[in-house]
Specification:
Blueprint (H helix, E strand, L loop, with lengths): L2 H8 L3 H9 L6 E2 L5 E2 L2 H15 L4 H13 L2 H42 L26 E4 L10 H4 L8 H14 L4 E5 L2 E7 L3 H14 L4 E7 L2 E7 L5 H8 L4
Antiparallel strand pairs: 1-2, 3-6, 4-5, 5-7, 6-7
Helix pairs in contact: 4-5, 5-8
Length: about 250
């Protein structure tokens, strides 16, 4: 087959086939006139490349896999592919966690914005919106709320006043909501707080609650870490908030 025939048969543009050749993924024979010629093996090779790209594998890794695919057995290809897919899965889960937290923070910001009074004066810091809680981006697989930069000696939760804006029935309802979300979690004491392990699929609910908690109790520090099927939630608070921490998140087991 010439390049145009291979492109039509496989549905891959000729420009892409030339790029694959230059990248060492798709070798081609050359006739004296300079035209590229491909055999039936090129069709199978392109199918393998396409499947690997669909899994999000970069061309560098696909090139490594092609070497195993050409010379090894199906079992060896499987053994080479599995850790690559697992790595992509970890990345995908981390992006889901980032988007989940970002979505929750946007909902909280919108609720906070709607609760602000309509004033005829220009905006100023007293509006409170610009100084509201903001979840930081993930670092090393963890998502943190109230995290300060390494240059800062103390973190925000350590200096925030221990005062909750919720009272009475609202506090009771919030505690019940946390207890339901953390049902069955394994609790372990950590410095200044508690570490809870629960199924990773609860990340959306936990992130939503953590963002909401920041609106009323900025003295809590939340850190979420996805570890395969598990979600690890770490909650810290100053010593004077220990009773409230235990009331919301339960005792260590």
């Amino acid at each position: 087959m010439r390049i145009s025939q291979l492109a039509e048969r496989c549905g891959v543009p000729a420009t892409t086939l030339r790029f694959y050749e230059g990248a060492g993924l798709l070798p081609a024979e050359r006739i004296p006139a300079g035209y590229r010629l491909y055999g039936e093996d090129a069709v199978e090779r392109l199918a393998f490349i396409g499947a690997a790209k669909h899994l999000g594998l970069p061309l560098e890794e696909i090139s490594e896999m092609l070497t195993v695919w050409e010379t090894g057995s199906c079992k060896e290809v499987k053994a080479d592919l599995r850790p690559r897919i697992a790595a992509r899965l970890d990345e995908a889960q981390q992006r889901v966690a980032e988007l989940t937290v970002f979505t929750a923070s946007l909902h909280a910001a919108l609720d906070h914005l709607d609760a602000l009074p309509d004033r005829d004066q220009p905006c100023d810091p007293h509006c409170g919106f610009l100084t509201g809680p903001r979840p930081a981006g993930p670092t090393g697989g963890a998502i943190t709320f109230n995290r300060r930069t390494p240059e800062q000696e103390t973190e925000r939760w350590q200096t925030a006043p221990v005062a909750c804006s919720l009272t009475g029935d609202d506090m009771t309802a919030r505690a019940a909501t946390w207890h339901a979300a953390l049902d069955g979690a394994t609790r372990t004491p950590i410095a200044d707080g508690l570490r809870m392990t629960l199924p990773a699929e609860r990340i959306a609910r936990i992130a939503e609650l953590a963002v909401a908690e920041q609106q009323c109790c900025p003295f809590f520090d939340f850190r979420l870490h996805l570890d395969g099927p598990d979600l690890h939630l770490e909650v810290r608070a100053p010593a004077e908030a220990a009773d409230l921490l235990a009331e919301l998140f339960g005792p260590a087991t």
